[in-house]
Amino acid sequence: MAVIKANAYGHGMVPIAHALTDVDSLAVARIEEAIQLREAGVACPIVVLEGVSNADELRLAGQHGLETVVHCREQIMLMEENSGTGADLWLKLDTGMNRLGFAAEEFREAHRRLVNLPSVSRNPGLMSHFSSADLSESETSEDQLKKFLEMTEGLPGERSLANSAGILNISASHLDWVRPGLSLYGVSPIAGKTGQDLDLKPVMRFSTWLVAIRNLAAGDMVGYGCRWRAAKPTRLGIAACGYGDGYPWALPDGTPLLVNGMNASLAGRVSMDMIAINLGADSDARVGHEVLLWGEPELPVEEIAAAAATIPYELLCRVSQRVSREIVSAQTPIR
Ligand SMILES: Cc1ncc(COP(=O)(O)O)c(C=O)c1O
């Protein structure tokens, strides 16, 4: 079950859905995302991970043949009052994350009520979510897996627990369905490791180009707040990318970049539309040359995220709408 919510983690949900020709199901967070996929001609099963929150969404789920996750009593009541959805369901158990899902003592009763709905023809899938699978040998994950297996024992229905970190760290959690998100895009969910360390290949290559070059004298300052000051004569590049594109404002001076394949570094605060780059003494960079922000094995998004004190998930999702997505290679875009 390929997780393509939040615009496929910033990659572009519809093209990613079309490129994933070999998945059994797609998963998104919200009904609107699923409808967007259906309207783009995506016909395969789609699971809505947050489920429905009102009668309108319930009707839309039925109309578009969406599988919805049922995680709270209100959703069951909604389905009972509206005689179900006509689409398949997943029942979610809270195994300790305390975000979505039925508590252990409510789970069996919730299951009984769901299978009694006149519209439910297939046994609901059974699922839960890890809170800390990115920590190897986490006791929490072991407890969650144990609780999930105990609580679902003897119930019919396919089982799903593992996100990317669960897939990588806890093979006993794979069960019937795995739900990779971040790893699908070639990025590591495990702190301190990059996709390359895990034999994954980054899908996103985030790049821009130089729009100006200036020569600074020692002592010249750069950008808002004059945060960076040239210690010696410096060639400075200005690139067309800023926090308005999703390049984090929080990045410090010295954050690595590749300009025309050569090492360079951020100089001064990130603006909304531009950044300044210390091109280095040997640079022959010119206006128009490519600036790579992240995405090659030598410039992994995991390292840029660490420099911005955030996680790669956030950087990928934050690439803004105005950044054009160019698909450079995909399988036949037909489903
Ligand atoms: C319920 C659920 N399953 C799977 C995933 C995928 O997680 P990851 O991107 O860590 O693989 C998510 C993402 O947040 C999720 O909410």
First-to-last CA distance:
16 Å
Overall residue-averaged pLDDT value: 94
Give me the number of helical elements.
10
Structural class by sheet pairing and helices: alpha/beta
What share of residues are in beta strands?
Answer: 15-25%
Query: For the CA atoms, what is the radius of gyration?
Result: 23 Å
In this structure, how is the largest beta sheet organized?
7 strands, parallel
Number of domains: 2
Can you put this structure into words, describing what you see?
- The chain has 335 residues and is α/β, with parallel strands linked by helices.
- The protein folds into two domains: 2-185, TIM Barrel (Alpha-Beta Barrel), CATH 3.20.20.10; 206-318, Lyase, Ornithine Decarboxylase, Chain A, domain 1, CATH 2.40.37.10.
- 25% of the residues lie in helices and 18% in strands.
- It contains ten helices and 15 strands.
- The protein has helices at 5-9, 13-19, 31-39, 55-63, 73-81, 104-115, 139-152, 164-169, 301-307, 312-318; strands at 2-3, 26-28, 46-48, 67-70, 89-92, 125-127, 159-160, 206-216, 221-222, 228-229, 234-239, 256-259, 262-266, 275-278, 290-294.
- It has a seven-stranded parallel β-sheet.
- Strand 12 and strand 13 form a beta hairpin.
- Helix 9 crosses helix 10.
- The longest helix is centred in the middle third of the chain and has 14 residues, at 139-152.
- It starts with a strand and ends in a 17-residue tail after the last helix.
- It binds pyridoxal-5'-phosphate (PLP).
- Residues 3, 49, 129, 163-165, 179-183, 189 line the site of pyridoxal-5'-phosphate.
